[in-house]
């Protein structure tokens, strides 16, 4: 029979902004030891992959409407001609060959309970590197800065289009994370309305500002920075394992000060963001042995609206599948507590930071 002191109780936690329920495990998992760099070299195929996103295969995709090339130390933005794609690119943005939305949808309106409307929008693939094996977990800071700056430009341009209420930016890495390609890429998709989770966060932010006079994410920053769930912090950003993480090893990257628009981030902030993304994703990759993952930008809509939120990035390593409790009840079971996640990912992320900035 177990004695009282041997019984470890789990917890029921609630999300910062919504009533989403998360059950945490009662057990503490054994933390992996920090591996040396030479023991964590990505396995590459001896033969280069036949990939439509790789350099040399530009004619296998639709013409790019944004191409970034580097000439004589300067970055130049170009676009493909119909039968003459730009060569020597470092970033390429192409229309998706299987778009989730389209600029010219078929009219399809119907009322509830069988509600439908035309799926109007734009769907782009941003090829984030010419190197098939250079994803965000290995990417140079300079290239990651180029990606984030190009993303700003593309998202800003899409908000000038008609019938665009929201621009979603996501990265799916690995087949288990629903990636369309093995080659590293971002998906940029416009929507005619706010996504439900973004709307929930924005409404929670608006209510908190009206009732308490403070942004709820700023409250989170005040509680979490320097605390047991902090993974890494830079001058402008903090990475945390959220209190009610819905998945194992989930973490967020949040501006430390109140920011509602990613498009207004300065070059200094973009450089700092590139650093913390690279260190935390690189640390996650080493800690969890290169897991598939989803990375999602939670951004405010740039349309004139009161529904603004403190923008941030959420990362979901795919370590386990959702079960009936999650799918059928909306109650999540997390097998590892965020405090332990912060300890593990923090150790690996600091190791990556020291390696990048040259600390011995």
Fill in the keyword field for this structure:
single chain; about 350 residues; alpha+beta; eleven-stranded antiparallel beta sheet; three-stranded mixed beta sheet; disordered N terminus
Write the layout of secondary structure elements.
Elements: E1 11-14, E2 21-24, E3 66-71, E4 74-78, E5 89-95, E6 123-127, H1 141-158, E7 166-173, E8 185-191, H2 196-212, H3 216-224, E9 230-233, E10 237-240, E11 251-255, H4 267-287, E12 293-298, E13 312-317, H5 324-329, E14 331-334, H6 338-357
Helix pairs in contact: 1-4, 4-6
Query: How much beta, percentage-wise?
Result: 15-25%
- Tell me about the largest β-sheet: 11 strands, antiparallel
Share of helix, binned: 25-40%
Order of helices and strands: EEEEEEHEEHHEEEHEEHEH
Q: Globular, elongated, flat, extended or rod-shaped: what is the shape?
A: globular
Radius of gyration: 21 Å
C-alpha end-to-end distance? 50 Å
Read across the widest sheet, the strand sequence of neighbours is 4-3-5-6-8-7-12-13-11-10-9
Number of helices: 6
What's the total count of β strands? 14
Low-confidence stretches are 1-9, 35-47
Structural class: alpha+beta
**Please, what is the average pLDDT?**
86
Would you give an account of this structure?
This protein has 360 residues and is an alpha+beta fold. It contains six helices and 14 strands. The strands form two sheets. Strands 4-3-5-6-8-7-12-13-11-10-9 form an eleven-stranded antiparallel β-sheet, sandwiched between helices. Strand 3 (66-71) and strand 4 form a beta hairpin. It is globular, with a radius of gyration of 21 Å. The model is unreliable at 1-9 and 35-47 (pLDDT under 50).
């Amino acid at each position: 029979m177990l004695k009282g002191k041997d019984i470890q109780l789990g917890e029921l936690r609630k999300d910062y902004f919504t009533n989403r329920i998360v059950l945490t495990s009662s057990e503490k998992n054994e933390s992996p030891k920090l591996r040396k760099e030479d023991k964590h070299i990505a396995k590459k195929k001896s033969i280069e992959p036949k990939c439509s996103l790789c350099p040399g295969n530009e004619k296998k995709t639709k013409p790019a409407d944004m191409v970034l090339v580097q000439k004589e130390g300067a970055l130049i933005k170009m676009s493909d001609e119909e039968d003459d794609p730009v060569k020597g690119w470092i970033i390429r943005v192409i229309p998706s060959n299987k778009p989730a939305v389209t600029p010219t949808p078929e009219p399809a309106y119907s009322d509830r309970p069988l509600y439908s409307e035309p799926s109007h929008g734009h769907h782009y693939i941003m090829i984030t590197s010419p190197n098939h094996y250079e994803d965000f977990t290995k990417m140079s800071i300079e290239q990651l800065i180029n990606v984030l700056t190009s993303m700003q430009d593309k998202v800003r341009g899409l908000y000038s289009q008609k019938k665009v209420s929201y621009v979603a930016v996501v990265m799916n890495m690995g087949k288990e994370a629903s990636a369309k390609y093995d080659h590293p890429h971002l998906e940029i998709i416009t929507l005619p309305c706010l996504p439900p989770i973004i709307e929930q966060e924005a409404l929670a932010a608006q209510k908190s500002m009206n009732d308490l006079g403070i942004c709820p994410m700023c409250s989170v920053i005040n509680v979490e920075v320097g605390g047991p769930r902090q993974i890494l912090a830079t001058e402008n950003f903090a990475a945390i394992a959220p209190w009610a993480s819905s998945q194992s090893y989930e973490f967020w990257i949040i501006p430390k000060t109140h920011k509602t628009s990613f498009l207004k981030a300065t070059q200094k902030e973009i450089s700092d963001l590139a650093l913390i993304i690279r260190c935390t994703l690189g640390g996650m990759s080493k800690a969890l042995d290169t897991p598939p993952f989803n990375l999602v930008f939670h951004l405010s809509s740039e349309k004139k609206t009161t529904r603004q939120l403190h923008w941030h990035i959420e990362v979901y390593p795919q370590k386990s599948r959702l079960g009936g409790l999650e799918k059928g009840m909306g109650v999540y079971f997390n097998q590892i507590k965020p405090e332990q996640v912060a300890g593990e990912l923090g150790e690996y992320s600091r190791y990556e930071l020291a390696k990048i900035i040259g600390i011995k």
